[in-house]
Amino acid sequence: MPMKDSTPMPDSPRPLPTRSRVRRPLQFGLRAMLLVLTLLAVLLGLIVQPLREAARRDRCSRNLAQIGVALHNYHDTWRSFPPAVTLGPDGRPWHGWRVLILPHLGPEARNLSKAYRLDEPWDGPNNRKLHAASVECGVCPDDQRTPLTGTSYLAVVGPHTVWPGVKATRFRDCIDGTSNTIAVVEVLDSGIHWMEPRDLSIDDFASTPGTLGPMASKHRRGVNVLTLDGARHTLTADLDHTLLMRLLRRDDGEVVDWNEIEP
């Protein structure tokens, strides 16, 4: 009988891993990494976005504070607040309060004030050359539709307000107290150039009961306002309309508690 070959047979070659078997762990790792990165990006956005919003709201508040300081400095110099507007020889509004407080807003605004001429209207031949200029505290950073040459901060003009019109008021005219009287309000997309002698009328508020009238803001907490004492406050859309009108008037004898108003 033929003898069996005792030479061990070589191991049969193992099948090479298929392409899919090689890439599956790698694909799983990439997907897991992308998922983790996506979650981190979402979490980072949840943290950063409120911080950015708070920073923009704080900048808006500081703009109002700077305006408040300028109003007080103007009063120290002229023994009154600026009138809402001054009229030219033609009887038209030539200059507004934002232009009149320029010397009290800081060095850059002071230089701009020196170039501004009061013997011609705000849109006269010389003053028109300044229309491309802007003031640092003129626009809320959340008011993205308003150019830097515009303004987000307007006065409320009318009888019994801080701004009767061409007449200037003084501290002693604010019978309600400076902390109970709104001087400047925030308005979104006002469409008003910062040099333009145009603001809001108290009639704009009286004609829209149940709302904040023309005041508007993108701040989540509400609209920023400046009271005559230089403090900044926040008003929400659910503010009682009667209370709002009391805050806009300087001499109705009403005292308010801001702790009961602000969010």
Task: Outline the fold blueprint.
Elements (H helix, E strand, L loop, with lengths): L18 H60 L6 E3 L5 E4 H4 L6 H9 L37 E5 L24 E5 L13 E2 H5 L16 E5 L4 E4 L5 H8 L15
Model description:
It is a single chain. The protein is an alpha+beta fold. The protein has one domain (50-260). It is built from five helices and seven strands. It has helices at 19-78, 97-100, 107-115, 202-206, 241-248; strands at 85-87, 93-96, 153-157, 182-186, 200-201, 223-227, 232-235. The model has no long low-confidence stretch (mean pLDDT 87).
Low-confidence stretches: none
| Overall morphology | globular
- Give the termini separation: 106 Å
Look at the structure and give the mean pLDDT.
Answer: 87
Number of helices: 5
Strand arrangement in the largest pleated sheet = 5-3-4-6-7
Fraction of residues in β-strands: 5-15%
Task: State the main characteristics.
alpha+beta; five-stranded mixed beta sheet; two-stranded antiparallel sheet
TL;DR of this structure?
It is built from 5 helices and 7 strands. The protein has helices at 19-78, 97-100, 107-115, 202-206, 241-248; strands at 85-87, 93-96, 153-157, 182-186, 200-201, 223-227, 232-235. Strand 1 (85-87) and strand 2 (93-96) form a beta hairpin.
